[in-house]
Amino acid sequence: MNIKELNPDASLRAAYGARLRSMREARGWTQDHLADLMGYSSVHISAVETARKPPTLRFSRSADRAFGLEGADTFDRQWRELRQGSLLEGFPEYVGYEGRAVELRLYQIGIIPGLVQTPEYARVLAESAVRRGAISPEQALERVDFLAERQAALERSRPPMVMVVMDESCIRRWVGGDEVMEAQLDRLIKFANRPNTVLQVAPFTIGERRAFNLPVNLLTMADRSVMCYAESQAQGNFDREQTSVMPVLTAYHQLQAEVLSQAETVAMISQLRKGTP
To answer: Is 201 helix (H, G, I), strand (E, B) or coil?
Structure first.
């Protein structure tokens, strides 16, 4: 059999594939045998080993189960390191702090913020990106799974305070049809009723008083340090320098003073839920 030589130093994906092959061969397993254990085809195993196909989160966890891996040296962890290369700059570092923050302040334009999206809403957005050719079907699954993990990280015994300001466009833009959108609006109303959350809509009528033109996330950590992550279509920036972060926090507070109250926000969402303009 003509076996392709691998260079683990060529890329993180190549290192992943080389390790998968090495561990499989060390156990005397064929690709067919590993495929049976993992629930994939031998062609898929071969493609990952030779770096022709990127591994996914589900593939990595299946490999960990097949090889009995736990702790720090798993394929799951190696996948996360690999995946960081495809994320906007700053976002992997931001997510590392997000799950430990004591306060989160989010501002979003155009779509519901990820941390309060329903799985169905998130799936529609991911599938739309697939149809545009922006991501692969496997990356779409990873995107939805990754978002679910971020949401789960906030469901802890002492949950953080989460403040969300959404531009009115977030709830006016109908995503996925009536059933998906109605469930998403219900999710927002339930989110607003939690004791550790604040939900506000920035109505179109505030005009030039809207403080931000791009999505912004602010994290407050247990030591009261504040961090900021902001992104455009193609760039992300994670900032921990207080001299540049504090003006953003001030602008966020100014924005909250201009937007609808939570009660007014819930009333607007409820009207949309009932089909009232």
So the answer is: strand
